[in-house]
Amino acid sequence: MVNVKSGKTIEKILSRYKKEKREQILEEKPSEKIYLKALPLRSTEEVELFKQEVKLGNILVVKISPLAKKSIDEVKRTVDELSKFVESVGGDIARLGEERIVITPRSVKIWREKAETPQNMLP
Fold first, then answer.
1. C-alpha–C-alpha distance, residues 110 and 85, integer Å
2. In whole angstroms, what is the distance from residue 108 CA to residue 63 CA?
3. Which of 6, 53, 120, 123 is 20 to 30 A removed from 68 (C-alpha atoms)?
4. How far apart are CA 54 and CA 59, in angstroms?
5. What is the SS3 assignment for 59?
6. Phi first, then psi: what are they for 99, rounded to 5°?
7. What's the pLDDT score for residue 113?
8. Are strands 100-104 and 59-63 parallel, antiparallel or unpaired?
9. DSSP helix, strand, coil percent of the chain (3-state; round to 5)
10. How far apart are CA 85 and CA 92, in angstroms?
């Protein structure tokens, strides 16, 4: 059985940890680890969260279909805003099929296969 004292100690530790995490995000310091996060885009308000994640050095795979079901125009505006942001911080952004985009920080570039041109096809 957990006594009240140990319960309060655990709460203190957890609240200190949560506070440090919040401060880290607010300071926009890159974390020591890079995470690959799969996140849905449900509303335009989530754009700021995505920007913070990229500033922290994380790679995002964003599913845009939840917002697309509401408004294609909002998706276009949101992706445009994210594209401008990513360009400003030196990151990268690309489409992954019809429903997803990938966003990377400055330290990660997305490989793109060069399209075959008629000249490349000649023997």
1. 16
2. 20
3. 53
4. 6
5. strand
6. -110, -5
7. 82
8. antiparallel
9. 50, 15, 35
10. 10
Which residues, at least 6 apart from 105, have a Cβ–Cβ distance to it below 8 Å? 30, 34, 54, 55, 56, 57, 58, 59, 89, 91
pLDDT tens per residue across span 1-59: 445 566 667 776 666 665 665 565 555 555 578 999 999 999 999 999 999 999 999 99
Nearest to 60 by CA among 36, 85, 87, 33: 36
- For residue 108, give every residue at least 6 positions away whose Cβ sits within 8 Å of its Cβ, in sequence order, or none: 34, 59, 91, 92
Domain assignments of the chain as residue spans, ordered by start: 35-109
| Mean per-residue pLDDT over the chain, rounded | 83
Distance (Å, rounded) from C-alpha 109 to C-alpha 55?
A: 15
Torsions phi, psi for 16 (to 5 deg): -65, -40
Secondary structure of residue 120 in the 3-state scheme: helix
Render 51-71 in DSSP notation, one character per residue: HHHHHTT-EEEEE-HHHHTT-
CATH no., domain 35-109: 3.30.110.150
